Every structure is written in structure tokens, then in C-alpha cells.
Predict the 3D structure of the following.
Amino acid sequence: MTDDQLLTMVQEACFRYYWEGAEVNSGMARENIPGRHNMIATGASGFGIMALIVGTERKFITREESIDRFLQILTFLGKADRFHGIYGHFMDGPTGKVEPFFGRRDNGADLVETAFLIQGLLAARQYFSGDTDNEKLIREKITAIWEKAEWDWFRKEPDSKFLYWHWSPDQEWVIGHPLIGWN
């Protein structure tokens, strides 16, 4: 096997995991937990979005198939639970409601998982640069999601070097992680 054949095999296997294993309603990455067939992992979906871009570019699927999946994902995300523009760690695929899998405090925003998701979405926004109505719509929907994320709201205090990692609408709490670039 050549290096190129090995790379193609690995990329296609990664792509197929996200393409074929996606939750049916949302088109996003399911969490692999026994008994949880519709639970979506927000951060893993960001990685899945990157895999879909690679799969499209490598022609594992057509660009139109990719566009259809991205519109499905973005339509779902437009209706899913958000807290100051930030998604939960896990969501229910059929409803878009947050899944408090790790306990009662896990029923709100997860800044880290949302960051992984939005990184994938911003890569897709750049990738779908065509002049078709659907590619323009993809860019518009991603921009709207990105701009609704109130990153600065998740500071502990206005000039804080710390962010809320998880935030619950029932009980505020912090896992102390400094902002990137802190001194």
C-alpha cells in the first residue's frame, strides 16, 4: 500500500464513521453510549463536520450530497437548545433538547464542546464558497450561529481570565480553566 492509498483508506474510514453513523434527524455525530441511540455529541459533531469536508473534497460523496447534509445539520442547530448562543455537551437528535448526561448541572451550555462545533462550522463556511443559493445559505446559517455565541458572557467576571466551561440555567458553576493566552 502506498502512502497515498493508506491516507485515502484512513480518511475514508473516518469520513464513513460520521457519514453513515450520523443521527437520522440532525445529521450530526451520535454519542457511542449503549442504549443511547439518538444522543448527539456536540464537540464530536465539529470533528465530524471536518470529516465531511474531507469526504467531499476527496469525492467520497458528491458536493450536492454534502450540501444536503450541511443544510440538515444547520437547520437542526437553528432549532436546538442554546444558552447565550452556546450549545450543551449532548443533545437529543429528534428534539434538539439538551441531554443532562453527566448530572443535573449538565443541563445547559458547554463552552468547550461548542467551540469544537463552531471550529468545524467555520471551516465549512470557508469551504462552501460557491455562488449557488444553497452554498450562500450554508454560509449565512453558519454566520448566524457563530455570531449568536456570546463568548464574553461566559466570563466569571467582566475582566476575568476565567470562563464558565459549563453553565446551567438552574445553578451557575465554574470549572476553573483560564482563558487561552493568559499570563
User: Anything to note?
Assistant: The two ends are 47 Å apart (CA to CA).
